[in-house]
Amino acid sequence: MSGEPTPHEARGLGADGDPSALRARVDRAGLDANGVRRLLRAREGAPAPEPGTRLEPLTDVDGRTTDMAVHVPEGADPGTLGALVLLHGVGGSGPATLPRFTELARRANVAILAPTARAVRDRSNQLDLAGLFGNRFDAPSWDLRGADFPLAALRWARVTLGVDPDRCLFAGTSMGALATWNLAMRYGDRLCAAVPINGALSMWETFGTDRRKRALLPNVLTLPLFVVHGAEDTQIPPAFDRQSVATLRESGHPALRHVEVPGGGHALETLNLADGAAPLLGELADWLAGRRRPGPAARITHRALDDRHGRSRWVAVRGVAPGAVAEVRAERLAADAVRVTVTGAREVRLHLGSDLFAPGEVAVSVNGVAHTVEFRPSLDRLLASYRAEADPALLDEQTVTLPVPAAGDGPDASRTGEER
C-alpha cells in the first residue's frame, strides 16, 4: 500500500496494527499531526459492518476473556452508526439481554455490544454488590472502577466496527445500571450519553448516604442521562435514583430525562422497554437520535477517587490521596496559557494537543504557581496515544506532569514540569 491511508485503514493500523507501517504511510503522504487527527476522526467511506447478531470474544486490559453478543441493525448508516454497550444484571448474560434492545438499535442507528460479566479479581470492587447481595457475593459482576469489559467493548466497537466515536453510550439494568452510573461518573468523556435502568449510585445507601460516590455526581453534569426506574421496584428502591436526579437538577443538568414507570418492578419486562411498540422505547430512541459527544472543551472540571479515573479530556490528576476526593478545574485561557486548580492530589498532567494549543511556550498556572512549558508536538506521541485509547478525542502530542504546590508555596514560583 502507498499514499495516504483511508480513515478506516488509519484507525485499524493505529489501534491494533503495525504502528511503524502507519507512520511510514503518514510520512509518505506528508501529513502533520493535524492531518493525522483529521484522518482518525473522518467518517467518509466508513465500511458498513455486517448486519445481524453474533458472538465475539472480548479481552479486557487484565487479559481476562468473555463472550460478547454483538448486534448490528439491518440498513444501518455506517457513517453515523453509534455503539451502545449494554450491561446485564446479576445472573444474566450478554446474549440473554441483547434481544430486548434490538428494536432500539434499529431506531437509534446504534450497534449493541453486550459482554458477559466475569468474577472481579479485586473483591473490594464488589462492595456495592455485597451491599445488595451479602458480603460473600462472588458471582460474576462488573468492576465499578473501570478496568473491565465495558471499556474494552467500547474500544472494540471503535476499532472493529468502525462506529462513530462521538456516538457511544453505556446502558445497563440492575447491577448493570450501577455500573452505568459509576462508569459514567468516571469515564464520561468517552460517552455521548448514559442510560441506567433500575439502578443506583451505590447499594450502601440502603444504610446511609455514600458520600464518596455522590461526590462524583458533578462529573456527569455535561453528560446526557436517561434514567429509568420501576416505581414498584423492591430490589433497588427508586428513591435512590430520585435522589441522584434531584441533585443533578438542582445543579442545573441541561439534558436529564427521568422516567418512573407506574407499576413497574425490577424485572425489565415490567418497564415497557422490551416491546418494539412501547412508547417508552420510542421516546428513548428519539432522545438518543441527536446525541453526540461535544468537541474539544476549553474548560474542564473533574473529580476522582483514585488515579485510574483521574483523566478528563486534556487534564488528569495523579497521586490522589487515600480517602480523598480529588478535583481539578482546568481552563484554556489562550493557545499558550492554561490555569489549573487542584485539590486532593499531588500532581496534574496535561495532555497537550495542537487542536487546542500552539507549539512553543505555554504558560501554566497550578494553584497560583507559574510554570513555563515548551510544547513540542510529536507525531509519534500522537500515534501512541491513539493506540492506547483508540479514541480521537483523547489524542495528545505531548504530556507534561506538574506538581501541585503544597500549602505555603508562593504564587510567584517558576518551575518546569516533567515532559514526555
UniProtKB/TrEMBL annotation:
Q: Which InterPro entries does the protein's record reference?
A: AB_hydrolase_fold, Plant_Biomass_Hydrol_Est, PLipase/COase/thioEstase
Query: Which GO terms label this protein's molecular function in UniProt?
Result: hydrolase activity
> Keywords assigned by UniProt?
Hydrolase, Signal
Q: Where is this region: Disordered?
A: 1-21, 397-420
Cleaved signal peptide residues: none
Q: Which residues form the Phospholipase/carboxylesterase/thioesterase domain?
A: 83-269
Pfam families to which the protein is assigned, alphabetical: Abhydrolase_2 (PF02230)
Q: Where is the composition biased (Basic and acidic residues)?
A: 1-11
Mind telling me what this protein is named? Phospholipase/carboxylesterase/thioesterase domain-containing protein
Q: Can you name the source organism?
A: Streptomyces sedi
